[in-house]
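Troubleshooting: if your tokenizer reports a length mismatch, compare against these two reference records.
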Amino acid sequence: MSKRQEPVRKTTRDILDDLHNGHREAASNGPAAGLKYLMRTLEGQQSLPNGVKAVAWDLVAADRAALGDWAGVDQAVRSFLSLLPAMEEALGHGFRAALLATTVLERGVQARSELGDFPGALDLCDRAIALDLGAHWESKRESLDWAR
């Protein structure tokens, strides 16, 4: 009698690598194709770890920014921020490097500025500073300080 095969269980890191590879391949046909891949992935995989979903929303923000969909970028930023604690929990020691690799907050500042939401853009600068994402965020914040 044959032994039942156990299902393959991927680590969060493996799933994250799969997401990046799939997006890179799809996005080689442009940001609309990359966005289509990401949205299908987010909608079709209910078991996708929340930490991976956060990174997916970072990629969604980049693709939507490339397409000039500023409201879509803002929504992606909101989704990313809601999943940030789950991303930290899921990635553990790799969280900091993964967070530094994201561009979602930069895209969010750009989107909110394009939409005329300067206080919202300033809020994202404050979040980035609180997350210690780099000294350049102080400069961005200073350039938007008039919005207070």
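Reference record two:
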Amino acid sequence: MPGTFLSRLVLVLLALPLAVAAGGRKHEIQFRRNDYAVVPAPARLQGAGLSKALLRVFSDDESKGGLYFHSGLFPVVRPALDAWSGEFAAGTVPLWAWMGARKFAWLTDRELLDREWHAGGARLIPKLDLFNPRAQELVVKLFGQLAGQRVQGILIQDDLTLLRSEGFSSWGRASFAGVSGLDAEPRRMLAKGTAHHGLWEDLKARRVGETLARIVAACQRSNPAVQVGLNVHYEAPLTPERARSWYAFDAAAASAAGLDFFYLMAYHRQIKAEMKLGEGDARIYFRRMLEAALKLWGPRLVVKLQVRDWQSSEPIPLAELKIYYDLIPTGVERVCFAAADPEDIDLISKVIAK
């Protein structure tokens, strides 16, 4: 697309009126850590215009990590959720738990772990094997346990996926052979355009969708009042075939799973870097992505804005955040600022101010 046309389109987008007045939209904050010395009180969040708080209750990269609540299933690093839920129990701001689904570096039971195809062989990865009935049951039970905590909702991390090279455990290959009647030959299963590849992508998408539906059902059995949201990669609205191929994310299956909200990770700096976009093109993509997401999920859409730079961890400047906030289309009812620290509350309140 010619650069001059992009520039004109950017100017048109920026000239649009503000999407929704601050009073007509709900705003949430997702905290990136769970070891703060001082917990931001619900009254402080409410005073800043925030109507929901999301707390991370898992670790994924630390080899000595675990959970931040008692489940009876995995090790507990510290019961941070107990302290937070106590603070929020009498408040008017609901507390949600942000929980991972399958990527945990501290898992030790090799039988529960998945394999990825790499350099001509299957190698162990620190992710639960969704094709293993025992591992899938463990994930489902874990979320059911979490729903029984003093939380109003649960956000499922973006690791409830099967990436392109994943799923090649003995369970995954046996599932493929049993369903397709074909030999579970990884090279053919990964070769685009082959019957093996198409059937393999279908099977992975079904398994992810089935696991998601079972998680939602388990949460509702444990606590019928609890709400459940899912982190969704930014490719899903505009390039659903890419999301299905890369992550085994099927929008139709996810929509049918009973989710209350879809948390679209509309992280503008990440998108700009990964797609190698100029600033003008990044703004155009951002707007089109959200328009497509709004058509898909309507009132169930939550737009996640990036508050800090992933590389430096420094807060993103107010002017930059305002630009992308103002590009959010009319009709988007919820925005979540992620992943923030308590000191970012003042910055966020300025972004959402009228």
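Descriptive notes for reference record two:
- Strands lie at 26-31, 52-56, 95-99, 113-118, 121-128, 153-156, 227-232, 261-265, 301-306, 334-340.
- The radius of gyration is 21 Å.
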